Amino acid sequence: MPTTERPLAGRTAVVTGSTSGIGLAIAGAMAAGGANVLLNGFGDAAAITELAAGLAAEHGVRVEYSPADMTRPDAIAAMVPFAEAKLGPVDILVNNAGIQHVAPIEAFPIDRWDAIIAINLSAVFHATRAALPGMKARKWGRIVNIASAHGLVASPFKSAYVAAKHGVVGFTKATALEGADHGITANAICPGYVRTPLVDKQIDDQAKVHGIARDSVIRDVILEPQAVKRFATVEEIAGLAAYLCGPLGQSFSGAALSIDKGWTAR
């Protein structure tokens, strides 16, 4: 049963893209709150097995893993019944999986555009479509979509990512309206820059595009729009996700919540 210390006890959470970075931190926060967790993402099989076992032992919950490819609608659709067979009804869905590529529009590789839209936007639809019927039947559900400050504002050379994340924010609002009469909330978290492997790759890509050093990219490109000149931590994003899924988050729905250190305040 849920308690103050374990507000998500008895729940099952599916977190996409959760074998590293923000997704892994969110999976850990869900487990710390008492939820059973389905991990998803790519990586070494032995390392992921060890990761799942460690989370389960640390928090006294069940943790399973799905290698579902977020570019394949059939694999995404199958992930939810897989989670339910292993862990119980899916009460919480966190759509976190994402990729990035940096290039001018006229030079943007078509395959990279298609992959970014598939993983960052279409996968959110496919996973939500699979999870909603059960949530509606049980009259309870929490959907958290990891969008971005780029879901609210744009930057050059990131056309696919900006388009996808704006789409995630809009889709979140539609989901919130459709779930409102069924005890389901849907919210988008819009982080500024978080120091993850994805962002480290962006730094390298931006250095190449702008023809400047990595330190200059961090100072003059990455952190320049933010009022507070530091990276967010994965724990900060995970804490907000856990809050939205807990009892104190029940009045949030349809929100695009900035956690961007003043970026979009300008």
Entry summary:
By secondary structure, this protein is of the alpha/beta class. The protein has two domains: 12-192 and 233-258, 3-Layer(aba) Sandwich (Rossmann fold), CATH 3.40.50; 194-231, no CATH class. Helix content is 48%, strand content 13%.
Describe the structure.
The protein has 266 residues and is of the alpha/beta class. It folds into two domains: 12-192 and 233-258, Rossmann fold (3-Layer(aba) Sandwich), CATH 3.40.50; 194-231, no CATH class. The protein contains eight helices and seven strands. It has helices at residues 21-32, 45-59, 73-87, 110-138, 159-179, 197-210, 214-222, 234-245; strands spanning 12-15, 36-40, 63-66, 92-95, 141-146, 184-191, 256-259. Strands 3-2-1-4-5-6-7 form a seven-stranded parallel β-sheet, sandwiched between helices. Strand 2, helix 2 (45-59) and strand 3 form a beta-alpha-beta unit. Helix 1 (21-32) packs across helix 8, helix 3 (73-87) packs parallel to helix 4 and helix 4 (110-138) runs parallel beside helix 5. The longest helix has 29 residues, at 110-138.
